[in-house]
Amino acid sequence: MKRLDATVHGHVQGVFFRDTTRSQAQQRQLTGWVRNEPDGTVRVVAEGEETALRELLSFLHQGPPAARVKRVEANWEEAQKAFSHFRVRR
Residue 41 — φ and ψ, nearest 5°? Predict the structure, then answer.
């Protein structure tokens, strides 16, 4: 089990990025959260199997159709098993 902590830069707020990320994470049985940050980025913290996390990271580089992702900063660490499901944080 691994933890992915990612920050997505670009035009990523207000384009269903958080909801689509939640859906992508839930499909892969990941736990964690996604939220908009005050600086215009989207932050994602997810835990689960590394293969599923890498699939989620691949999605983050693309985003939903209306998004324009410029770059993604990704950090990896061991899972802390801190979450029971994946949700959108406000």
Answer: -90, 170
Quick one: what percent of the chain has pLDDT higher than 70? 100
The tokens describing 23, both together, are: 């859906």
pTM as predicted: 0.96
Chain position carrying tokens 């499909």: 27
Question: Which DSSP string corresponds to 4-20?
Answer: EEEEEEEE-SSSSHHHH
Residue range of the domain that includes 24: 2-79
Total count of domains within the chain: 1
The Cα angle at residue 72 between residues 68 and 73, in degrees rounded to 5: 155
Rounded distance between C-alpha atoms, residue 69 and residue 50, angstroms: 22
Q: Residues with catalytic annotation?
A: 18, 36
